[in-house]
Amino acid sequence: MKRTALISGASSGIGRETARIFARNGIRLVLCARRADRLQALQEELSELTDVCTLDFDIRDREAMTEALQSRPAAFQEIDILINNAGNAHGLDLIHEGRIEDWEAMIDINIKGLLYLSRALLPAMVERGRGQVVNIGSIAGKEAYPRGNVYVATKFAVDGLTRAMRQDLLGTGVRVSAVHPGLVHTEFSEVRFKGDHEKAEAVYQGYRPLEAVDVADSIWYIVSRPGHVNVADLLILPADQASATLVDKKTDT
C-alpha cells in the first residue's frame, strides 16, 4: 500500500531532500512551507516520481494551517508519516541581550508549530491504528552551548515532546522518532545571521559538515523500518564534530 507523508519546511534543506528521497521510494507527498514558488518548483521536479500536493502557509498561524490542511485533495487526506521539520534559529545573542522578536519566532515555529501540526494529524493516525511521526531536533536539544539560549531551549523542548509523545501513543500503532543533526550545511545559518551570507558560510569552513541529504537519508532509514521496529532517537554528526561546540577545524578557510 502506498503511504503518504506530510513534510513541513519542505521548500529547502533537510525537508526538500527528504521529499526527494521519499519520492524516489514511491511515497506520496504533501509538501508544506511558506514559499509557494519553491514548493511549486519541487512539485514539478517530483511529480514524475510520485503524487505531490503542496500547501503554503506559515506554521505559526494555526488558522492558516488548519485551512490549508482542509484544502488538500481527497487522495492526500490520509497521512501515514508526519515529518515535523519546520524550524529556525535567530541570532547568537547573550541571554540578557536577546531580541524578544527572535525568541518569539523560535518558540512559535520550533515548538508551537510542531504541536499544531501534530495535534491536527495525530487523531486520524490513532483512529486508524497506524502512523509515524519523525520530529527533527538538533544536537542543541541534547546539550547547551554559549549564546544558544532560547534556540537550545526550543530544541530541548522538541526532545522532551518526542519522548512524551512516544509514551502517550504507546499501544496506538503510531511510532514516534526524533533525528538530532549536528552541523548541516543548509540555509539555516543564513537565517540565524539575518541574511549575512559571508558570516553564515564561515560556520562551515575548515571541516566537512553534513549535507541535507545525509540527514534526509537517516529519516528515510527510520520510516523504512518494519512496523515492529522504532528507531526512537538518532543523533547524527559530521565526523569532524564531537559535541555542540567541539569541531575539528583544520584550516581557517
Question: Would you give an account of this structure?
Answer:
The protein is an alpha/beta fold and 253 residues long. It has a single domain, classed as Rossmann fold, CATH 3.40.50. Helix content is 41%, strand content 17%. The protein has a seven-stranded parallel beta sheet, with helices on both faces. Strands 7-8 form a two-stranded parallel sheet. The longest helix has 29 residues, at 100-128. The radius of gyration is 18 Å and the shape is globular.
Question: Which labels suit this protein?
Answer:
alpha/beta, single chain, seven-stranded parallel β-sheet, Rossmann fold
Structural class by SSE content? alpha/beta
Helicity range of the residues? 40-55%
Order of helices and strands: EHEHEHEHEHEEHHEHE
CATH architecture: 3-Layer(aba) Sandwich
**Poorly predicted segments:** none
Residue share in β-strands: 15-25%
User: CA-to-CA gap between the ends?
Assistant: 49 Å
Count the E strands: 9
Total of domains:
1
Q: Kindly provide the radius of gyration, computed on alpha-carbon positions and rounded to a whole number of angstroms.
A: 18 Å
CATH domain class: Alpha Beta
* Principal-axes shape call: globular
CATH level-3 fold name: Rossmann fold
Q: Provide the CATH superfamily.
A: NAD(P)-binding Rossmann-like Domain
Total number of helical segments?
8
- State the assembly state of the protein chains: single chain
Spatial order of strands in the largest sheet: 3-2-1-4-5-6-9
Mean pLDDT: 95
